[in-house]
Write a structure and sequence with these properties.
The chain is mostly helical. It has 24 helices and 7 strands.
Length: about 550
Amino acid sequence: MLTYSSPEKKILPKSYEKPWLLILLTLIWLWAGIIGRDLWGEEGYLYAYINSMIETQRWLLPNIYGVPYISSSPFYLWLGGISKLSLTSIGIPEYISVRFLTLVMISTSLLVLGIATKNFLGHRYSRVTPLMTIGCVGIILFSHNISQLPLLFFSLNLYSYALSQYKANKIFRTGLLISLSWMVAFYIQNLPPVLLLMFISICLTLHPGWRNRQYYLVLLVSIFIFLPLAALWPSALYIVYPTYFDMWLDLYSLGVYGGFSLPKFSLPTWYYFKNIIWYTFPAFPLAVWAIIKLKQESYKNPIYFFFSLWIALGFIFLLFQSDPENNQLILIIPPLVFLATSQIDTLKREFAAFLNWLGITTFGLLALFIWAEYIAINLNLSNELYARSTYFNPLYQPHISIMVILIALTFTPIWLYSVNRKHIEGRQAVTNWATGVTFIWLLMMTLFLSWLDTSKSPRPLITELENMIPETTLNKFNKLQVCANSDDLKTLISWNEYSQFKIQSSINKPLNFCQYRILLSTEQEFTAKYPQVRTTWHATRQRKKNNIFILWE
């Protein structure tokens, strides 16, 4: 396996890390936010397609309201459907049964990441990389949502694991692992991430440490296994739905860069330069420290060359996206945490102490703010805080939950104990940072979960609008004496998931076949699109940029 040994023997300080702490942190970090809430954001979109696929048995090309799922392969939907069918059969709620797939993939990713670190850097570092990954604030949301990104993250870590032990394993086994990582990346985000990983693999041969017969054979085996695996879904789509295959190839096959007939490239953007620090903190500054310490070793040593090459090519890949998005930064998180971990024990104590102080200050103030807001909002002890909360989320109904308070109170002293250590060094500072992130995330998903759920879920808006409709009209909707329709997919998905009565789809149909129409939009956008319409009823959130449901005749 590729394990770097420094030519200078240096006695490293004894590690006081406890395996149980990593396991406890990971479990708390993973489960907080999985349960007890509705669908947020894009979760509803994927969940609706999973349900439709199960009901209609259209596994090759899931379709909902006449809109096919064609932006990528349905690989994630297949796994989500299997997870839902398996877990709901034993009584687990539907939303949790699909989110459980995310939990499994993130858990497996952290495990594979730790094993790869052991192979690359040695056993001593294998617990640091999962903790540093947990500490990266940017990955929190997709790590707890119904999302394709956990599978992409898994594919990146599987790729790094395969390369970390290619000399110790048989050629076919390593090639199979690499091809599987490429296949998952392709089926989740089409061609771009696969081409990036392939290009990294080829460019590694520029370094003499990777120019050997075994690595060349591994590359060949990987390509020969990957090509038929990757061709399975496109070939089936081409045979059964040739029109939709052409649509995928022309518009979506290049993922974030569009398709072959309509590529979307832009001039280099500063977007990722501005966001990489907070998204990957503390991995990014620690990786910069590692580059400074390694100097020429960063490209002379084959392992560090691999990390540096991946970061450089990955960042170049991100720069030319016409529609940049923070979560694309996960493409370079594995090499960043590898590189940052490699020199964690050389971090000067004053820097480690500063990172620890920053964590204590930041998370301590955030914890005080969350507790103060929770008490003020639910007990109405501060008119100013209550008014501010109502401005951001007027639909929230204050209430106190003893169970939520007990959970939050239990973890608060645990965090205080974990950060109250003397002689802080690099790895302790990283552990404390990860503990702080987990602590704040747990407080948010306990004390603030109801408030956030009311703000991010469409259910309260739908309930409010239904309460505004006269009972006679509502009865007509329920008895199908009148109907409402919408030509907006997001509106159809959200409304039919939570409402008492269903609305009809007018996508690719006449708009006036129902007496009423409904739309999820902002007031400004609605007025601009339908200036002549007199709104009949609408649920409202006070902030102008918030979406609202509008029902009109």
